[in-house]
């Protein structure tokens, strides 16, 4: 039986900035329009994102494990691939996370009267499972990056803004695209590390399609575009120039991606990209706060 610490490790908590950042950015963008924050809605949006991401991590653990994809995988602990517990247990925990996310999402929709998001929420759960689950997982066809960009970039950020003020703004759009690109960069780093093993099992990720050299360059390009995009709203929120500070924590992971040839060591890029995503979100939010209150 897997221990509690192994279950926690299997949840891959280091990936959670990918869902925390869009909620921070989406809430800040709404604050910029009204000067107020609905904190209960913010917490519910955060819970939806966290539960979905943890559910995705367990779902991937289960689906990749039963296919044998994780038999030779480097990186974080895999419960199924390591045969630490019955695969059905991992699948059931993933489904439990999806169910809790759905409950929090329903509460959020009711409280905020954002009824169009009901269909979006259902789509998000099916997409989360279909990433590596089912007979024809789209994550094995190089479409996982699109999923991350749409659901952990656009949907998470714009959805948060919409539940706050029942409308969308250009500033929230730039932030959504930006954090979505950083999420894609994180996935790209993960998939560059796994190119050799993914090729062996027929998992054709975008990194495999691009080739290692181009995939590494795409990581740097995505970070650069993400950092520059919010500057389009500096006419309304001048303090958004602060977002350029994000280039500082972007230097180290970018250099590692371009120069580190020992693929297992790219796990450091994953950690640093998660931190970078949070720095990006905090600077974005701080800029909005400074413009609203000062």
Can you put this structure into words, describing what you see?
The protein has helices spanning 4-10, 17-34, 39-67, 87-112, 117-130, 144-165, 170-193, 195-201, 206-210, 212-228, 247-259, 267-293. It has 294 residues and is mainly alpha-helical. Helix 2 (17-34) runs antiparallel to helix 3 (39-67) and helix 3 (39-67) packs parallel to helix 5. It starts with a helix and ends with a helix. The mean pLDDT is 92.
**How far do the termini sit from each other?**
55 Å
Mean of the pLDDT scores?
A: 92
Indicate the overall shape.
globular
Strand content: under 5%
Helical stretch count?
12
- Unreliable sequence segments: none
The helix-strand sequence is: HHHHHHHHHHHH
C-alpha Rg, in Å? 19 Å
Major β-sheet annotation: none
Name the helicity range: over 70%
> Given the helix and strand composition, which structural class is it?
mainly alpha
Record field, number of beta strands: 0
Q: What secondary-structure arrangement, pairings included, does this model have?
A:
Elements: H1 4-10, H2 17-34, H3 39-67, H4 87-112, H5 117-130, H6 144-165, H7 170-193, H8 195-201, H9 206-210, H10 212-228, H11 247-259, H12 267-293
Helix pairs in contact: 2-3, 2-6, 2-7, 2-12, 3-4, 3-5, 3-6, 4-5, 5-6, 6-7, 7-10, 7-12, 10-11, 11-12
